[in-house]
Recover the amino acids of this structure.
């Protein structure tokens, strides 16, 4: 049991050389509209691993981690969850990966994830005013503009933690691609996001779900999550021909997979590109085919608070909930952060969890 009077503790990361150090942090003084959450569980996301590997620059020192679920410990002023409930101590919540001001042109146009003033948890330097700004800590200091969503007590923490990155990102991509009941859906890349996409497409009533991955064990997982057909890259075109490809969700980020997604999309179909989050080789497409096929291509990055609310609802109700729980081995304690990161880098499980007790 956590001692509520104890100082918050954060795994402060100083870069690939300096690594992690557990450091006590002063309890933040909350400004109006801010919330202090005691984190129950955080999961290590692929983007954390990219940062730790030095592939993605981040301001330092920082508190990494953004996939998390926790319990409200303190609130300043009036703050409401997405469904309008007053945020109060004791409430179990998750929160958007980034803040949104609600008034800039992008926020007004419905893409708050691209707010011109966005601040992202697990991606910012520690400042005197904002120290607990990531998930790998006992507490997270939620600043104004963060979207909060209630999490049912019945939802296991290991299933809930990925909601605010993996699950909400998939929900947003499906929405942007127009995924609807009756569609034939192709999911490329069967890590955490791909398996989520398979289950979510089934939830939305997809007629066929085809899952593609280079790894056979991941393909079998995709089948367990509800894929009707699974295959490697060499079988993708054949399956798309056989079952159709109304919506193609590309989550691997591999440029050959991106090219395949553009090549296989069916007439009046959509491609959602999600996995390509760092610069890679160019891909090509032949415009005449795109015109005649009525093709659409959408990029999708992060999500809105409505997508997060939908993600939590989906996780709470999906028949695949036990399968999602099985993707996350027993959590390691925060003081074993180096072991947790090493396990995540090994990649034997889609997510490694860190507990804060
Ligand atoms: Zn904004
Ligand atoms: Zn993430």
């Amino acid at each position: 049991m956590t001692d509520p009077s104890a100082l918050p503790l954060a795994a402060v990361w100083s870069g690939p050389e300096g690594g992690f150090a557990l450091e006590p942090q002063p309890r933040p003084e909350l400004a109006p509209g801010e919330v202090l959450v005691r984190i129950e569980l955080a999961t290590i996301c692929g983007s954390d691993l990219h940062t730790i590997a030095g592939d993605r620059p981040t301001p330092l020192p920082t508190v990494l981690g953004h996939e998390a679920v926790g319990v409200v410990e303190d609130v300043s002023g009036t703050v409401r969850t997405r469904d309008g409930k007053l945020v109060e101590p004791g409430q179990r919540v998750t929160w958007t990966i980034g803040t949104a001001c609600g008034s800039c042109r992008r926020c007004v146009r419905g893409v708050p994830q691209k707010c011109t003033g966005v601040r992202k948890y697990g991606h910012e330097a520690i400042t005197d005013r904002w120290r607990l700004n990531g998930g790998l800590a006992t507490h997270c200091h939620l600043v104004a503009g963060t979207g909060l969503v209630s999490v049912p007590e019945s939802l296991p923490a290991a299933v809930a933690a990925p909601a605010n990155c993996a699950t909400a990102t998939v929900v947003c991509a499906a929405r942007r691609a127009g995924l609807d009941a009756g569609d034939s859906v192709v999911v490329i890349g069967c890590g955490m996001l791909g398996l989520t996409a398979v289950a979510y497409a089934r939830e939305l009533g997809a007629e066929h779900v085809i899952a593609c991955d280079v790894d056979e064990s991941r393909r079998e997982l995709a089948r367990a999550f509800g894929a009707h057909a699974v295959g490697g890259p060499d079988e993708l075109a054949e399956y798309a021909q056989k079952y159709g490809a109304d919506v193609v969700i590309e989550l691997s980020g591999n440029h050959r997979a991106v090219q395949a997604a553009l090549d296989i999309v069916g007439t009046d179909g959509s491609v959602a590109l999600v996995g390509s989050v760092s610069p890679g080789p160019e891909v090509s497409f032949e415009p005449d085919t795109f015109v005649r096929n009525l093709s659409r291509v959408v990029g999708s990055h992060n999500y809105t608070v409505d997508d997060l609310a939908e993600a939590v609802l989906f996780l709470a109700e999906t028949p695949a909930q036990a399968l999602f729980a099985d993707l996350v081995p027993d959590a390691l304690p925060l003081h074993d952060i180096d072991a947790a990161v090493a396990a995540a880098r090994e990649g034997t499980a889609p997510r490694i969890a860190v507990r804060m007790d």
The first strand starts at residue 9 and ends at 13. The pocket of zinc ion (ligand 2) is lined by residues 45, 47, 66-67, 165 (CB under 6 Å). The chain has two domains: 9-164+327-355, 170-299.
